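Justification of resources, computational component.

The compute hours requested in this renewal are based largely on the per-chain cost of generating structure records like the one below. Each record pairs the submitted sequence with a full structure-token output. That output is archived, and it is also reused by downstream analysis tasks.
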Amino acid sequence: MDVKIAGLTIFKKKGEAGSPSSEMNLVEGLGVEGDFHQGGEKQITLLSVETRNWIQAQQKKGLCFARFSENILIDGLPLDEIKPGDGIFVGNAVLRISPQTKPCFDECPLFSGGTPCRLSGRAIFAMVEQSGTIHIGDAVDLKAV
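The structure output for this chain reads:
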């Protein structure tokens, strides 16, 4: 299966809805140009189309469903194969998978009810290792360390 960029979103201010974009500039060591999440190990949030579809199909809503959003939505992302340190290559940009993951919260109705949430372990954070511009439809190449 081809792995491709399906969506791009820039979050200019915390707590505000993101702005969809057809392209995104990634800045080495910082993250998405113009995004408030710059720096650290959570520069960019990646999510698979499969996980986004699962969230939208749930009758019982998790605590993070309304407040979690991804910068890069990827179609065909093999979540079971990705581990910290792996590289994601898109055009001339290189991302490195962060060891940071999305935790579950005790107050979440899914977590407290014993329902597994696909955001935990499937919402992936990455750091920009090499700057570049990416576009919706770009092919994504994954390389294990």
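The first helix runs from residue 49 to 57. DSSP finds two helices and eleven strands in the chain.
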